[in-house]
Amino acid sequence: MPSVGTRRGHHACVQRYEQLLHMLRLPDKEAAPGVRKREMATTTGSERVPVPRDRDDDYTREAATARADFIREQTGQELEHVTSYSFDPSTLTGNVEQFVGVAQVPIGLAGPLLVNGEHAQGEFYVPLATAEGTLVASYNRGMRLLYEAGGVKTTIMDDRMQRAPAFLFASAREAREFGEWLRENFDDVKKAAETTTKSGKLQDIEQYTAGRMVYTRFNYTTGDAAGQNLTGKATAAACAWIAGKYEDIEHFFLESNFATDKKSSQVNMLHTRGKRVVAEATIPNELFQRIMRSDSRLMYRARQVSNLGGFMSGVNNNGAHSANGITAMFIATGQDAANVAESSAAFVYAELRENGDYYYSVTIPSLIVATYGGGTGLATQRECLEMLGCYGKGNVRTFAEIVAATVLCGELSLGSAIVAEEWVESHDLYGRNRP
Amino acid sequence: MPSVGTRRGHHACVQRYEQLLHMLRLPDKEAAPGVRKREMATTTGSERVPVPRDRDDDYTREAATARADFIREQTGQELEHVTSYSFDPSTLTGNVEQFVGVAQVPIGLAGPLLVNGEHAQGEFYVPLATAEGTLVASYNRGMRLLYEAGGVKTTIMDDRMQRAPAFLFASAREAREFGEWLRENFDDVKKAAETTTKSGKLQDIEQYTAGRMVYTRFNYTTGDAAGQNLTGKATAAACAWIAGKYEDIEHFFLESNFATDKKSSQVNMLHTRGKRVVAEATIPNELFQRIMRSDSRLMYRARQVSNLGGFMSGVNNNGAHSANGITAMFIATGQDAANVAESSAAFVYAELRENGDYYYSVTIPSLIVATYGGGTGLATQRECLEMLGCYGKGNVRTFAEIVAATVLCGELSLGSAIVAEEWVESHDLYGRNRP
Amino acid sequence: MPSVGTRRGHHACVQRYEQLLHMLRLPDKEAAPGVRKREMATTTGSERVPVPRDRDDDYTREAATARADFIREQTGQELEHVTSYSFDPSTLTGNVEQFVGVAQVPIGLAGPLLVNGEHAQGEFYVPLATAEGTLVASYNRGMRLLYEAGGVKTTIMDDRMQRAPAFLFASAREAREFGEWLRENFDDVKKAAETTTKSGKLQDIEQYTAGRMVYTRFNYTTGDAAGQNLTGKATAAACAWIAGKYEDIEHFFLESNFATDKKSSQVNMLHTRGKRVVAEATIPNELFQRIMRSDSRLMYRARQVSNLGGFMSGVNNNGAHSANGITAMFIATGQDAANVAESSAAFVYAELRENGDYYYSVTIPSLIVATYGGGTGLATQRECLEMLGCYGKGNVRTFAEIVAATVLCGELSLGSAIVAEEWVESHDLYGRNRP
Amino acid sequence: MPSVGTRRGHHACVQRYEQLLHMLRLPDKEAAPGVRKREMATTTGSERVPVPRDRDDDYTREAATARADFIREQTGQELEHVTSYSFDPSTLTGNVEQFVGVAQVPIGLAGPLLVNGEHAQGEFYVPLATAEGTLVASYNRGMRLLYEAGGVKTTIMDDRMQRAPAFLFASAREAREFGEWLRENFDDVKKAAETTTKSGKLQDIEQYTAGRMVYTRFNYTTGDAAGQNLTGKATAAACAWIAGKYEDIEHFFLESNFATDKKSSQVNMLHTRGKRVVAEATIPNELFQRIMRSDSRLMYRARQVSNLGGFMSGVNNNGAHSANGITAMFIATGQDAANVAESSAAFVYAELRENGDYYYSVTIPSLIVATYGGGTGLATQRECLEMLGCYGKGNVRTFAEIVAATVLCGELSLGSAIVAEEWVESHDLYGRNRP
User: Which of A48, A271, C253, C338 could form a disulfide with D323 if both were Cys (CB 3.0 to 4.6 A apart)?
Assistant: First the structure.
């Protein structure tokens, strides 16, 4: 039975702590082939035919081609287009295993998007990777509206990425004592966590109790990386330190549904995961009428009905479709699109002014973005980030603001379309692809 | 002010109804250029520089190159890789506007995945488009576990796609009367809706009331398409018919946050959006120990803690990370990845048997998939669907089962890793790409 | 191990079915003393000193006095006021066990409340049992506002009480088959359920699936009773019939958190538990200004902020404090106040009209009320119901409308106070009791 | 238009601040008659017949009798029992307005309840005010089980009562700046808040942002009072101070659905409102079998199914029926029963040990209780608190632990009954009152 999760006396734990810390500090390059070795071994004598790998270097055109050939043999399917990639597979280490080729996702350009942010300022042409007809046209239309309205104001309200270990004790009473200890020893926990990372800084630790458990959220700032991995590693180191110091932990688990990675949750809507960004604007009704063939009063009425609808239906977003723009930008720029689960949450707040002007704001409480690490350095994705002036360190807040501004444009475009009933019409004109 | 949303006497409404039906039945091919014409016109004499379009045919390499050149002029950025696509842009009509090139998303192969479905039966090699290191390795490892455990049993429990118009009345009393009328006239409403679609069938209409509103959900089966567009069109036609028949509607809106397209909601978790699929398996502990260096008893304990954690945190998924596998398959196969917002919801139910066997099931209540239409026919995406034997009509249920089975493999793999603390370790070995 | 929950072959189940049906049909009066006998027996030779009971007749002043004496002996506390009740304890059979006396909860009168319902029509003086200073004054003030505004319009939108058994099967596939069978055999299930009740009518059975379970909601109308008990009994009979007919049920449980009795849930907010009632009114701003020292524009702004606040905080009620009025009426009229858990849910929808008029509606989706059975026949409670003309059969809808109208008055009163900042002030004037 | 909510320059605000502080500090006893005077005046010349009040002293038997007579005249209903109260109405100042008499709610005694708390230690006989047949018997049975199992361990994990003002600004950017200012000026805000209260201590201020708003939660400890009023007053004083200091507030509202008084919310389930109490115990299966005719293995299975059911249904409590015991104790002891809305939330966490022992814990995250102020000093309510040794200052934690221990007994009793199918049976034996 695995040992670290369980507390078995101080001594064992300290040992394990050192061992785990060692492991975290010194990623053992030799270990990887070992893993592969084991994997290959298991197939011997079995009917199971694993995907072929090259033990010496699996990130080559040859290795990829071998897998494409394997697929042809196994399924009869040629991968002509999948194997038509323009970059060197050696760049993929750390991004994908058993690489065979690429999905080519079409990118449409929308813009200019006019942003009045603290980091993003000026006009941007936004790459949207999508196969949903009308999506680019719709965002583009919203960008035109907001351009003429003077642009989108954006503000980053908060910034935190977390891992959420849970700790089990003999009873609630010991759980409470641990909670106090954890608060008192925050500085040391922070030190232990930050041994594993340069860019991650532990900000605070939230605590939530139930039964004999303490659920925590270790909140970090993570620089220009999205930070799920660095927070994972830092929190593991912190937990190892904690387990070495604190006798009474019966078990701990590095995740227990309180960071809700790749999932939507109220706790993240309240407490932020990634960036919490607000995009807002005030639009004269004349522009809605002229550009959108719509009307702010009717839009506002629809908004009220949607607000209540969303409250009843238990939705994570009382707005329209922020996930559309977010997903399209995420795929284009190498973000982890699985984070659309969290990043799709939004709070819309609108006001109809007496003169018919429409104040509209959208708050994205869990926008998980990076301009460094992950998929951001891949060939096409990096070009898309660079087109926005956002590749690499120091740019993540600019990028977050551009995403939020894009979302607002899409909200007002679809919001207009619904009341103008152009919605169905426009879908019909551009259509979905009907093969 | 737009007219259809508002009821202004029977006569106007019938006229509008005919007009809208006409529009819905006969998509006017000539209309599209008109839209474009207006758009180009507005830029004249403005400082705003829109993305260039070719009025005659915008779906050509030349038009795309013109946009790439435009980006270079505007931003200084070359799009060398983005413009390296292997297909003819003319295939993109209905998928994207203002096409400039592609995002090349790396695909790793996982498998063989052994599925005991009603539609999917046998072994599959699964294409996962991702840039998140370890994702493919982790799913692959889960697939091996489940292979040795005899495969994943999959069952589609329900199938429905919806649009959710809301209707406003003078007061709650008229709203209630309308609700009764709508139930009584279901057959006619169904007929009106289905005039616009061959594959969409209106199954029923749910009603939810609040204040002076009736929120509805028009539930359809949609064949092998995901169906958001066809249900939109069909429901618009139904609403037009309704508005022409029923005097007392003050307003209606085609969407009011009760279908929660591209958003996660309790109503969809309860009532299904897309396919409701269960994947389940019973795994001997010996396999966990041998293959996963884990243990079913510890996994079960972690599951209990996660279940409560998720309940407290208000998460839409008490499992681990289904969005990872779903997103990677969605991008590879041309699904709308924005639907990860809905499709990330899941219900995990596990049992520890007295002999240590672990029964594990994951239910995906809103899996939105297609094997026809949308992005499924794009060059690389179609190859990926064909690799699974799932391209085109008659295959959507097979595909849904493969996705669900993949998800289960990923859940057990990450679930094992968390308790075995391989989790951080494995991320460290394969790493995220650190440029 | 208990047997009915588990399916052990057809024969055993049919036997058990007959046995359970027998039990349900013929409540065995002799059984009760047996239960008591066992209970008394256990105390012999133990240090545990149970509350004394009279085996022959426990519902007498003497038995109650014996318990008051017992409390004095055990705790030193005289129960002078608790034992000052004005009714004969023999009326309490079926309401309480081990009766010792009463809580005297002060009742304040509010009104006149002017209701324009379908059942409640005219003026009512409303008894509010509470110890919260300002509550009666606040509702009274709201009633005055609405009186001058022409009264509160009330509409009952739906009516259903449920029990929610869950059924377990070998796998999801058998669960799905059972779901189909249950739909096909609804008429027989209904017959089996209704053998146990005169007033309960099974309307339909909702189904929700996850893993290898089918969660159901058996929805009944229950006449003038709240109906939790009759639906419990009817559903038990239905389940016994089902278990006798359907071979493959592995387990069933009469409740599995899908009726959410005494708890608040999204499913009940969507699908109604008890009565779904709307109260609505349109109030001229002049009245807000004159009577409430408030203003509709400011109230509306506060409402918008509260709507978003409630959406973020994950509240079950975007209004102000409906539980206050509901609880006070529930205690006064013998409703089960524990149902405040469900009945506290509400949907507020408001509109600011161009002339400053304020349309306001409150929807109570799970108002659980009775005018018959339960505590409604107790001495003081019955007087309070009769004061409203609502005691006994045929009155439950009238009563539900009065409750909803009262709630709306309280919402507008507190809503006014918050913006007028009379809120804190008024609490200070009338104060909470400070001993 | 009311002025304080709106910021109109520094000068006006400081004036208003002094005025409001003055008002908060010196409750003007002369003001109350003025309020009454206005109220009486408005009825002149109107058809509306208000409930009669005595301007000089409304808290007398005579005033109450006048109202009972009024009801007889208006409705024909005698209030024989309602007017049979045993205390002097002069004690009701600050508890109720327009007092007419009492609801006599029957109290049953359950016990002995054995508690191993930090504050509550030993045996208690628990007064339960209810009209729901079987409730007392069921809790009593659970208390016997837990007595034999060695008692219930209780732990108070947290303690906080809040008001939640929201602040509006020109845009999100000013909102963020205010948030920083508020953190920096916490000490002064705390001082301003605490000028109004002896027992209330401001602990911290949570912040949640959306759009151009900052929603806050002012968290206090409140001694032995429930504290809704004192936190209201203290927060109003704090807001007045803030508004006088901070120029840029456009509006503020004392409540915006983030304290969710009298409502259930995720934010309170996460962050506590009132006391967060855990009750836990480990019970040998032998006791379940002997006392409850049940079995821990079957109960655990049912629990798993209920956990998932509650997750799907969106319930605020994955347990069984804590509201039953809480409400009955609340009514008996003068708590505000409307707080059942919040206090009904619960987290159940259970474990089946290998030997069949059943570890069971219930966490009540928002248990709002007092032993001082509110209704606790009323005649019968005080006797009930004293019977528990809990009346007055210094006892609130003892009382909270007794409530939590009672809840746990009820959970295991109903949990047993459901699987033993005694549930319906027992309801049938004791029955609901059928008049």
Answer: C338
CA angle C124–C127–C132, rounded 5-degree value: 135
Distance, C-alpha C152 to centroid of its chain? 22
Q: Which of B54, B69, B132, B204 is catalytic?
A: B132
Q: In this complex, which of B93, B215, B381 lies closest to A103 when CB atoms are compared?
A: B381
The H or E element spanning position C159 is strand C152-163
C184 is catalytic: no
Q: Are A113 and A143 in contact (CB under 8 A)?
A: yes
The set of catalytic residues of D is 132, 336, 427
Dump strand ranges (E) for D99-254.
99-116, 121-129, 152-163, 166-168, 201-210, 213-221, 251-253
Assess B9–D contact: CB distance below 8 Å, yes or no.
no
Residue B49, both tokens: 């520089």
CB B305 within 8 A of CB A253: yes
How far, in Å, CA of D96 to CA of C18, rounded? 53
Rounded Cα distance between A376 and A379, Å, is 8
Looking at the DSSP bridge assignments, the partners of residue B164 are B255
- Contact (CB, 8 A) for D127 and C100: yes
Q: Are C334 and C385 in contact (CB under 8 A)?
A: yes
Provide the token pair at B269: 């978790």
User: Is D280 in contact with A212 (Cβ distance < 8 A)?
Assistant: yes
Q: For residue range C241-260, list pLDDT tens digits in order.
A: 999 999 899 999 999 999 99
Pick from D73, D83, D290, D421 the residue to mutate for testing the C interface (most C CBs within 10 Å): D421
Mention every residue, 6+ apart, whose C-beta is less than 8 A from residue A376: A333, A334, A335, A370, A382, A385, A391, B435
pTM, to two decimals: 0.92
Cβ pair B206, B219 in contact under 8 A: yes
Distance CA A67, CA C239 (A): 55
Measured at the CA of A280, the angle between CA A276 and CA A282, to 5 degrees, comes to: 170
One-character DSSP codes across D161-174: EEEB-EEE-SSHHH
Closest by Cα among A166, A228, A236 to A200: A228
Query: What are residue D297's phi and psi, to 5 degrees?
Result: -65, -40
Considering only CB atoms, C108 lies closest to which of D96, D389, D432, namely D96
Give D219's contacts (C-beta < 8 A, 6+ positions apart): D160, D161, D162, D202, D203, D204, D205, D206, D271
Structure tokens at A125: 């042409």
C277 forms bridges with which residues in the sheet?
Answer: C156, C364
Report the Cα C82 to chain-centroid distance in Å: 25
What does the CA dihedral B380, B382, B384, B387 come to, rounded to 10 degrees?
-130
pLDDT tens-place values along chain B, 435 residues long: 333 344 444 444 444 444 444 433 333 232 333 233 333 333 344 589 999 999 999 999 999 999 999 999 999 999 999 999 999 999 999 999 999 999 999 999 999 999 999 999 999 999 999 999 999 999 999 999 999 999 999 999 999 999 999 999 999 999 999 999 999 999 999 999 999 999 999 999 999 999 999 999 999 999 999 999 999 999 999 999 999 999 899 999 999 999 999 999 999 999 999 999 999 999 999 999 999 989 999 999 999 999 999 999 999 999 999 999 999 999 999 999 999 999 999 999 999 999 999 999 999 999 999 999 999 999 999 999 999 999 999 999 999 999 999 999 999 999 998 887 644 444 555 554 443
Closest CA to C219 of C237, C236, C229, C231: C231
Cα B19 to Cα B26: distance, rounded to the nearest angstrom = 11
